[in-house]
Design a protein that fits this description.
The chain has about 80 residues and is an all-alpha fold. It contains three helices and no strands. The protein has one domain. The longest helix has about 30 residues.
Amino acid sequence: MPTKNPRINVALEKPIYSLIARMAQERGLSLSMVTRDLVREALEIHEDAVLVRVADERVAALAGRKTLAHTEVWE
């Protein structure tokens, strides 16, 4: 039966597979659901790291320039 979600096949090292299998068993979930959740979490962490880098670049670009305080902007 066709599925609505695309699939990805991944080859894992035995220790990683074993950890995911244990997590799945402890949570009563399938291997694919636990793997999906781990990938989502990793993507969120990656996105956070990228956004931190962008913010740091913006702060560095403001070095030595006059900026407005929060109260000056919002009050």
